[in-house]
Write a structure and sequence with these properties.
heterodimer, A: 1017 residues, Immunoglobulin-like, four-stranded antiparallel sheet, globular, B: mainly alpha, 22 helices, 2% strand
Amino acid sequence: MPGKLKVKIVAGRHLPVMDRASDLTDAFVEVKFGNTTFKTDVYLKSLNPQWNSEWFKFEVDDEDLQDEPLQITVLDHDTYSANDAIGKVYIDIDPLLYSEAATVISGWFPIYDTIHGIRGEINVVVKVDLFNDLNRFRQSSCGVKFFCTTSIPKCYRAVIIHGFVEELVVNEDPEYQWIDRIRTPRASNEARQRLISLMSGELQRKIGLKVLEMRGNAVVGYLQCFDLEGESGLVVRAIGTACTLDKLSSPAAFLPACNSPSKEMKEIPFNEDPNPNTHSSGPSTPLKNQTYSFSPSKSYSRQSSSSDTDLSLTPKTGMGSGSAGKEGGPFKALLRQQTQSALEQREFPFFTLTAFPPGFLVHVGGVVSARSVKLLDRIHNPDEPETRDAWWAEIRQEIKSHAKALGCHAVVGYSESTSICEEVCILSASGTAAVLNPRFLQDGTVEGCLEQRLEENLPAGCGFCHIPYDELNMPFPAHLTYCYNCRKQKVPDVLFTTIDLPIDATVIGKGCLIQARLCRLKKKAQAEANATAISNLLPFMEYEVHTQLMNKLKLKGMNALFGLRIQITVGENMLMGLASATGVYLAALPMPGGIQIAGKTPNDGSYEQHISHMQKKINDTIAKNKELYEINPPDISEEIIGSPIPEPRQRSRLLRSQSESSDEVTELDLSHGKKDAFVLEIDDTDAMEDVHSLLTDVPPPSGFYSCNTEIMPGINNWTSEIQMFTSVRVIRLSSLNLTNQALNKNFNDLCENLLKSLYFKLRSMIPCCLCHVNFTVSLPEDELIQVTVTAVAITFDKNQALQTTKTHVEKSLQRASTDNEELLQFPLELCSDSLPSHPFPPAKEHLESASSNSGIPAAQRAVTVEKASPMGEGNFRNRSTPPCANTTVGVVKMTPLSFIPGAKITKYLGIINMFFIRETTSLREEGGVSGFLHAFIAEVFAMVRAHVAALGGNAVVSYIMKQCVFMENPNKNQAQCLINVSGDAVVFVRESELEVVSTQQPTTNCPPSCAGGEVTT
Amino acid sequence: MTSELDIFVGNTTLIDEDVYRLWLDGYSVSDAVALRVRSGILEQTGATAAVLQSDTMDHYRTFHMLERLLHAPPKLLHQLIFQIPPSRQALLIERYYAFDEAFVREVLGKKLSKGTKKDLDDISTKTGITLKSCRRQFDNFKRVFKVVEEMRGSLVDNIQQHFLLSDRLARDYAAIVFFANNRFETGKKKLQYLSFGDFAYCAELMIQNWTLGAVGETPPHPDSQVDDMDVDLDKEFLQDLKELKMLVADKDLLDLHKSLVCTALRGKLGVFSEMEANFKNLSRGLVNVAAKLTHNKDVRDLFVDLVEKFVEPCRSDHWPLSDVRLFLNQYSASVHSLDGFRHQALWDRYMGTLRGCLLRLYHD
C-alpha cells in the first residue's frame, strides 16, 4: 500500500439556495477517490455550512494517485426525493506526490457545475502520506516533476537535458456513446470532464515512466493537448523534454557537474542501475557517454515501425569542418561528433524548450515544419492507439530529416498541433533545426577544458546565427555573408526560428509582432476527396503565408523572426492560415534589402505612376518603421565585411512538406529564384490586394509594443504591473459570394480590430508591451471564424529605458573584451546600473563568484538574464512567503511568461492542468453568447487561481489556454464551451522584499569568500 | 461581417471609471458610446467607434455580473470570480452606493415602499436622472434600510460593516435610514431650499442625542429592548419634553428668560430690537415644537415647524447668521439661571441638538 490520501471537508460558503421554501440549503459532501466514497453529515439549513469533518482516508496505489483526480461533490439533502447536486470540485493531487512541491492542498475551491457555473465555495484540506517502495516493478512515476515552462525553471539548474518524450492515450468520447442519448447533459459533461482528467493523469504517469527510464527527474516544456475527434474518439497526447534538474538551494549547486557527479543523481529515483560506476568515477573520457546508452527507442516510444529504420544521423564527412571558421574548426568538429553521439541514441532529437541555458544552443539552421492530412476513423481498441502513434511518428521523421538537411542534429522549440473538421484532421509539427552543445546532453563527463576552449571560440551574441550547414553543399539556395558581428563566419540574410530570442543575442532596436493571415476557400467535400482537396491547397497556403511574413519583415526593416508559429485551421469550406512571430533586427545579420514593385504591363504612363506611388509608400513605411523600432545599425562599409559570397539569393529557410495519408514528402522551394532585390510583381488585382494589405497593418499606438516571445527585445526595465487576459471574437461571414479576397479582408480586419481593441483597453498601462501574444483560430461552423488571444501586458519604466539600452550597448561592446577584464568590470557595471541609493545585494556578488569558479563563462550572461527577466539565479534562501494573509482573497498572478517581472520564483508547486465544460440551455438569460463565454472564462481563471492558492502559491507562470471550443445553437437557446488550460503553480517573492532579507542576514547567505565584496560596496 | 461574440477577460478585472460612471448613471450602451465619443476619447487614443462600442459592451457586461455582488458588498470581497485590487473594490462599492443630491431630496423621509418606487418615473422626469439610475439608488436605500433597520448598535457602524462604505457615505446612509424610519417631511415647498447635507447634519445630531443609543446604556425597560438603538427616537425623552412647556406657559419664567437674554446680548446683536420684539414668539415656537413631539404626526413635521417657527421669522428680519448663533447660545444658556426651572438636563439635550440643527437650517 504505497500511499494514504487524507481529505478533510471543513466548510462551505455562499452556497446557492436549494430549498425555495426556506431559502436555505441542507448541504452534505461526497468525497470520492477511485471507487471509494465517503460522506459528511448533512449540515441543515445553512448557506455557509461548517462540516468540520473527520479525516477521510483512502489507501491507494501510487499509480492511482497519479491517474485519479480527487472528486468532491456537494449535494443538497432531500428527504423525499433524490438529492440534488450543487456542484463538484476536481482536485489533481499530483503536486503532493513529489517532495519539493506542495505538502498540503488547503483552501477555498469554487464549487463548479457544468450547467450553472460556480455555485459557492468549499474549504478542503488534502494530504498524502507516501511510502517508499524501491523494489517493485514500477507502474507509477511519482517524483518526476512536470513543468509547462519551456525553459529551465528559474530555481533549477539543468544537469542533463535528455530529450524528447511523448505519449498519447485514446478513448471513446462519452459525448458520443449511446448512453449519451438517455443521460442528462450534466451527467454527460461530468463523464467527459472526469474521463479527460483520468486520461491526463494516466498520460502524465506514462511520460513520467519514460523519464525515469531515461534517468531524468523532470519534464520541462510539457505540453498536453486534446483532440476531440468526435465520433472517432478522444485523444490526449503530450510532448515534453526530459531533464535532470538540480535545485539551486545551496551554494554547492553552483559547482560544475563533473565535480560532483553523484550528487545530482541523488534525487533521481531509479530502480535498477545498469552501470552505477559511471556516477562515482569522476570526469571520464568522451567515449564514456556511448557506454551510457539509453534503452532502445522502443521502450520509450510505443510506435516503432518507422523508428529504427532510416535517417540515422551519421555525419556526412566534412560537413562540420567545412563551414567552420579557421580557429573554430577542430573544436567544432569535435563538438559535432560529441553532439551526434549524444543525439544518435535518440529516436527524435527534439526539444520542446524555447529558451536554453547559456552555451546550449550553438547554431540555428532555420524553421522545419511538416504537415499531414489524415482521415479519422474510429479507434477500435483504445489500448492500442497505433494509428495515431504512427501518424505522429511519420511527421516526426519528416521533421528529423528536414533538420538533417539543414546540417542540424537537433530540433529545438518543437511543438505539435492538430486541426480537426468533421473526419479530416491536419497534423502539424514544427521546430527550429539547431546544433547543440553536448555539455548538457549527457552526463557531466565531458572534459572541462574542451568545453572552455569551445566556449572561447564561440563569439557571444552571434554564434547561433552562423550557418550550421555546409556552404558548398547547401540544402537550398541561400545568400550568405560574413557575420556582421564577428566577421569570421557565414550568416544567412534572414533567420526564421520557433524559439525565443537567445538572451545573449545582440539586437538593434526593438522587436514587434508580425502576423501573416490568409484564407482560402475550399469546396465542401466528403472524406477522401476532402482530404485530397486540403492537401492540394496546403502548399499554396504555406507559400503565401511565408511570402507575407517575409514582406512584412522587410517592411519593418528587420531580418529575423523568433517564436514563429504557423497555424493552419481547417473548416467545412475554407482553410485559414495564421502565422505569428516576433520580428527583430539581429546585429549579426545583414541589413534587409527593400521591397521593389514591378508592374507587368509596361508602357502605360498612369500605371507606372501608380506603381511609383506605391513604391514610395512602401519606402516611406520602411523608413518610418525603422524609426519607430529604433533600428539604426552602425554603417559598415562593404570593404570591411568583404564582398558577399556570390551565391543565389536565398529567400527562405523554411523546409516543409505535406503528405496526404502517404509517406510522400514533397519539398517546397520557397526561394524566389535569383532576383537580386525583393521584387513584388503586380500582375493582377490579387497581387495589388496583397500590397495593399501589407500597408494596412497599423502599428500599435505610441507607448505600446507587442511580441509573441517571452520578452521584448530592447525593453528590459519591466515594472511589476502585469495583466494577463484572454479575448475571444467570433464573426459571422455573410455567406453571399464569398471570394478569397473578401475572406482575407474579413480575417485581416478581425485580427487587426482585435489588436486595436486590446491596445485601447490596456491604454492605462502605457508604456507597456504585450508579451507572448498567442492567437488561435478556429472555424466552429460554416460561416463563423473564432479568434482567441491570450497575452500578458507588462508596463515598463520609460525613463529607465534609455539608461538601460545604453548600458546594454555598452555591455555588448564589453563582451568583446577578454574574460578577465570583464570579470573585473562586472561588479562596477552592476553598481552603475542600479540606482545610487540601491544597496548592493551580497547574494548577487556570490552568484558572480560562484559561477566564475565553476568555469562556466556565464557571468555576463547571468547579468543579462537578471536584467531582461529580472530574476537572476542568485542563491537566495528559499523563503516561501505565504500569499497575502489578509482577510480578503489573496492575489494570484497569472502570466503566459515563465517569469514574473520584479520578482523571483522561489518554488514550483506543480503543474496545473484543468479541463472544464460549461453548457447552458438558457443562453439569452445569461447575456447571450458573449455573456455566457465571458462568465465562463472568468470562472476558469477563478478556479485556476483557487487551486494555486490552495497549493500555497501566489502565481501561475507559463499559463496557456490550449483549447477554447465554443459551440452555439441560438435557435435552441443553447451553447456549450470546452476550455483546457495549464501552467505552473509557483511561489514568488518580490525582489524588493528579497533584498531586505538578504541585507538583513548577509552572514548566513554569503560564504566568507564574498565578504570582501560586501565591504567594497 | 458581424461580430457574434466579443469578449475580453483579464486576470485582474479591468474597471474603467468613466464607463462605470455612465453605467451607474443608467445610460444604454449606445448612449454611453455616444457620450464617450463626445468626450474626445477617439482623438486622444486614435481608436475607432467600433473599438469603443466593443469596449463599452465589455465593461457593461462586467458591471452587470458584478452588480449581484455589489448588493452584498462583503461578498465582493470574498468572491473568487473577479480578481479586483482592494482599492478598486472600494471604488466600485462607493460609487455604486453613491446617490444624486436631486434624487435623495425627492425620496428623503418617504417610506421606502413599492408605492414610492412607482413614483420613480415622475422623479426621473423631474430630476433628469435616468429611471435606471433612480431605481438603483432607490433599491440601495431600501436594501440598506432593510438590513440595518432591525439591528442594534451604532447605525453608522452597522452600515459600514454590512456595506463597507466610507465613513462619509455611511453617515449619509444613516441619515437616509433615520429619515425614512421617522418619516420626516422634507418635500414641502418651504423646505425646498434645504440640501440633503443640511438634513443629514441634523439627522446625525439627532441620532447622537435623541435616540435610545444616545443614552449610552441599556434601555431601562426590559421589554423595550426590541427598540432599535439608533433608528428610533427615545420615546421617553420625547414624553419628557412636555415638561419644557412651562418655559413659555409660566409668564414670569418667560419674562425672566427674556430679560436674561436681552441683558446679555444688548449691544452685541445687530438685530437687537427685532430680537427683543420677537423673543416671546420665537421661544414659544421652539418650546412648542418640543412639547408636540409625542405625536408621530408632529415628529414628521419637525423640520416644517422649525422653518416656520424660527427660520422664517428670523430671515424676514434679516438676522445675520452670527446673530442667530449668539442668540441661540444665549437663549440656551440663560435657562440655567432660571431658578424655578428644574429640567436643565432635559433642556440641554433638547436645545443642544436643536441649536445645531437651526444654525444649519438657517440660510437662504
